[in-house]
Amino acid sequence: MSGIKGPGSVNDPELESTPGMDPFTDTLQRLREAFSSGRTRSAEFRAAQLNGLSRFLRENKQLLQETLARDLHKAAFHSDISELIICQNEVDLALRSLHTWMKDEPVAKNLVTQLDSAFIRKEPFGLVLILTPWNYPLNLSLVPLVGALAAGNCVVLKPSEMSKCAERVLAEVLPRYLDQSCFAVVLGGPEKTGKLLEHEFDYIFFTGSPRVGKIVMAAAAKHLTPVTLELGGKNPCYVDDNCDPQTVANRVAFFRCFNAGQTCVAPDYVLCSPEMQARLVPALQSAITRFYGDDPQSSPDLGRIINEKHFQRLRDLLSCGRVVIGGQSDESDLYIAPTVLVDVQETEPVMQEEIFGPILPIVNVRSLGQAIDFINRREKPLALYVFSKSSQVVNQMLDRTSSGNFAGNEGFTYLTLTSLPFSGVGKSGMGRYHGKFSFDTFSHHRACLLSHSGLEMLKNIRYPPYSDCRQKLLTWALGSHSCNLL
Amino acid sequence: MDPFADTLQRLREAFSSGRTRPAEFRAAQLNGLSRFLRENKQLLLEALAQDLHKWLGLVTSPTLLLANQEESQACTTSGPSHMPHPQLGVSCLQSAFEAEVSEISISQNEINLALRNLRAWMKDEKVSKNLATQLDSAFIRKEPFGLVLILSPWNYPLNLSLGPLVGALAAGNCVVLKPSEISKNTEKVLAEVLPGYLDQSCFAVVLGGPQETGRLLEHKFDYIFFTGNPQVGKIVMTAAAKHLTPVTLELGGKNPCYVDDNCDPETVANRVAFFRCFNAGQTCVAPDYVLCSPEMQTRLVPALQSAITRFYGDDPQSSPNLGRIINEKHFQRLRGLLSCGRVAIGGQSDESDLYIAPTVLVDVQETEPVMQEEIFGPILPIVNVRSLGQAIDFINRREKPLALYVFSKSSQVVKRVLAQTSSGGFCGNDGFMHLTLASLPFGGVGSSGMGNYHGRFSFDTFSHHRACLLRPPGLEKIYAIRYPPHTPRNLRVLLMAMGTRSCSCTLL
Predict the structure, then answer these.
(1) Any long-range contacts for B120-126 (C-beta under 8 Å, 24+ apart)?
(2) What Å distances lie between residue B132 and A88, A166, B148, CA to CA?
(3) How many CB atoms sit inside 10 A of residue A309's CB?
(4) What is d(CA B116, CA A150) in angstroms, rounded to the nearest whole number?
(5) Rounded CA separation B200/B207 (Å)
(6) Is B68's pLDDT higher than 60?
């Protein structure tokens, strides 16, 4: 979608076609100057930005719901619980907590520093770049934005060009609610993003695929820019023999099909015994029918695939293993039916890439141990799920695997707890955010020691030359438990 | 032939076995580190003396003689390090003070802190819950990343190897340590003696120069901790990006030292000279250059001379308390800097001894080499500014430094500089004391680095913080309200619960 122009947006077709012209320089320069002026430092300024965000959400609720409906066929309810309310909660939390988070944090002192003032000061990094994806285009833009603004940074937001309607709202409406000397939205596809990444930022926050995550980190390395990467992977879902199949099926189906499966933390595949499978499949069918009716395509509660390319990718996956539930698709509607596949081999495409659609393969294992080995042979996922009535089973899975996040007997509800850090590990990412973790992510924690300008007699002891006597005293003092008498 | 593949494979298998997970294992490793320091103190002091060419009275020590023999091929230094110092007795270890303080004690303190706090740090951290998760167990679990690579430099070769190592081991990782090949004697002790104190299935030292390090970095690690210069930092991060490996980079820069007109010149001179000349200036957080008014300069320079004379005598080259430059290459680099500006104090050098005198340069231009690169030697340029504002602008025009120093009797001045600049760490009216507080995070910002460590920050750096939510099975009736199809009534109930203020509540 070219030619989107609006306050704060940069997408001039003329510039695009002129080789060598950098469309971002002016914008970035402007934001850097604003940061240097110190404008974003005061709590009042930051609170004003957050209040602006809050008003943006409240005053455009209907527009935002329509936007998400057009991009992803999201029902208003889904938009509310997975995007709008989550954003609002984050904004509210930041507003409530801003002064506390901003405060200097005094730290414990040792003997030598008793008379000093020692604390950690939180400072903004400066110019922050936020690159966001298409699957939760509002949430995944605004929640990092809350943290970056609360921490006092200037921000460049580059939303995904694939969720076109959300991109437009963020480019044309959002900037009006923020101080535009300190905030800009830039637009473009992979090529433009590559050019953007050639510039120096003070922090880069990226949500997307591991493949692009590597590109972002490599670009950041050129400027020694710290990064948070929220990536993805295949999130395993182990279903123990000892469980209630219907309860499990409800939860697995709900979280798998939410947003038509286009969720980085959705259960990606099930691991269970053949016996469990026999009980789970009918329960899954029952859940799907209860949720979406006999003809899921006509349910208002089931989303659609973002675009043709992903639709084709998912349609191809439907031929892996054997379809036991669903399997239908409709290109004109970018519709994929809630589908369960069985007899799936580890080598098939559906077990190779992150699915990101309403397709759930079931892979058989013969024991918990085998399931754990299966999981540990693969890349560390963003999320890991275990369903079992036995807390021992849940704890064993927790103890013997690693993942960004973990849930026992539940789906990705933990996302809504701002007191939990949301993060990946290994290939599923680095760094974390949500709640205070966002503020901390976008802040430099500066170690500060304010010493007395006088009292030189006390400090004299550390200077050379060292008499035998002083040497002994100092060595003794240094040898004392946790005492540094420098 | 890949010299590292087998070692890395072995360590990965050990990690997968779960061996490093229990607190007992980790405590045993930390205790091993502690014994390594205590039982080899003499050896370490000698190695450090040899590497950084500090005067050592114990020339009759067999260890020292042995090291000298082995080293004579590879080492480019020669000269009076073998000659007994006229003022030292055989039993005196005066010169070891720096090593004692800045390498051994600091490392020992970190180990002790980790041992005391290990279980507290390892514990699951419960978090506050919302309405929807009231019945659940919600906590953060600290997990080791797996295979950690620590790349350490030559200037504090023990401290900057062991400090991160403490954190990595406490966090339950397997570790590959690559010490600097430039501090050869310490490298040797770390490679040959240290592993004997640790479980060698989970710890390895690898050796080599830039080329071998490049090959090492082609491998996948689960965390990389690097201390060194920004240029190599970029190489490390680029290599890490290929595997999506998180990194902490402790880099460097030019640490400004603003000296206000309102101060006691002698006190300031003591502190600046001491911290500049410590370890012959080869400290990443040393004050690199002074910013002050011309008036202040005229008071400061004589005070600096006085301090230097008091500390190191009239002939600093014969002081047992002044270090030497690490090698020929850095010596030449520093000697080149001596021709910048005008020498007001010192300026002497002796190639055969890798000695650079404590030097103060004035009339220095911003464009001269001494103001372009990190000095890393006992040379202190003074740049004049006409006001505090000008000093702040000067600082902010440049890369964010690892440390920033302000000397002033006025706390307003100190606070203004703090508020209007950024740096890794900051100290008002003293040198790099903030290093000694394990409760402060030690790290850079911008081109001086990313990430931090020391104390608990080390443990957290080397741990993945895993968000966990455990729900009791059943109770499906409560949670059924969230499933489609969504009747208007269900919707209202849910939205009401979610929309509730100050509750941050979602009934998902």
Answers:
(1) B121/B170, B121/B456, B121/B459, B121/B460, B122/B23, B122/B26, B124/B468
(2) 17, 29, 38
(3) 10
(4) 36
(5) 16
(6) no
Interatomic CA distance for residues B135 and B116, integer angstroms: 34
Q: Which DSSP symbol is given to A152?
A: T
Q: Which two tokens mark B97?
A: 């003070």
Contact between chains at B466 and A425 (C-beta distance less than 8 A): yes
Please state, as a whole number, how many other Cβ atoms lie within 10 Å of the Cβ of residue B192.
10
In the sheet that B174-178 helps form, which strands lie side by side, from edge to edge?
A: B203-205, B174-178, B147-151, B223-227, B247-250, B449-450
Based on the residue annotation, tell me whether B218 is a catalytic residue of this protein. Answer: no
Taking CB atoms and an 8 Å limit, are B244 and A406 in contact across chains?
Answer: no
Q: Which of A80-89, B161-170, B300-309 is least confident?
A: A80-89
Instruction: Note the maximum CA span of chain A.
Output: 91
A73: region left, alpha or beta (phi > 0 left; psi from -120 to 50 alpha): left
pLDDT range class, residue B439, cuts 50, 70, 90? very high
Residues in contact with A123: Cβ distance below 8 Å, sequence separation at least 6, in sequence order: A152, A443, A444, A446, B422, B445
pTM: 0.93
Q: Give first-to-last CA distance, chain A, whole Å.
A: 63
Check CB contact of A152 with chain B, cutoff 8 Å.
Answer: no
Cα radius of gyration (chain B): 26
- Min Cα separation A307/chain B (Å): 24
Q: Which tens digit of pLDDT belongs to each residue from A163-204?
A: 999 999 999 999 999 999 999 999 999 999 999 999 999 999
Which DSSP category does A264 fall into?
Answer: T
The tokens describing A57, both together, are 């959400």
Pick among B321, B429, B487 to test the A interface (most A CBs inside 10 A): B429
Alpha-carbon dihedral sign for residues B480, B486, B487, B490: positive
The span from the CA of B260 to the CA of B297, in Å, is 10
User: Active-site residue among B103, B110, B250, B374?
Assistant: B250
Residue B324: closest CA among B88, B76, B100: B76
| CA A229 to mean position of chain CA atoms | 7
Strand-pair partners of B149: B176, B224
Tens digits of per-residue pLDDT, A261-286?
Answer: 999 999 999 999 999 999 999 999 99
The token pair at A89 is 């909660």
In sequence order, the 6+-apart residues with CB closer than 8 A to the CB of A267 are A235, A236, A237, A252, A255, A256, A360, A383, A385, A411
| A446 CA: distance to closest CA in chain B (Å) | 5
In the 3-class helix/strand/coil scheme, how is B315-377 assigned residue by residue?
A: CHHHCCCCCCCCCHHHHHHHHHHCCCCEEEECCCEEHHHCEECCEEEECCCCCCHHHCCCCCC
List the catalytic residue out of A90, A161, A167, A230: A230
3-class SS of residue B268 = helix
- For residue A405, what are its two tokens? 């996040």
Identify the CA nearest to A9 among candidates A120, A158, A123, A223.
A158
ipTM for the complex shown? 0.94
Q: Is A407's CB within 8 Å of B468's CB?
A: yes
State the first-to-last Cα distance of chain B, in angstroms, to the nearest integer.
55
> What is the distance between the alpha carbons of residues A71 and A74, in angstroms, rounded to a whole number?
8
Separation between Cα atoms, residue A290 and residue B406, nearest integer Å: 69
Judged against a pLDDT cut of 50, whether residue A307 lies above it is answered with: yes
Residue with tokens 């085998």: A370
CA separation for the pair A453, B407 (Å, rounded): 7
Asked if A241 contacts A366 with a C-beta cutoff of 8 angstroms, the reply is no
Whether residue A340 contacts residue A327, with contact meaning beta carbons closer than 8 Å, is answered with no
- Cβ contacts (< 8 Å) between B495 and chain A: which residues? 77, 80, 85
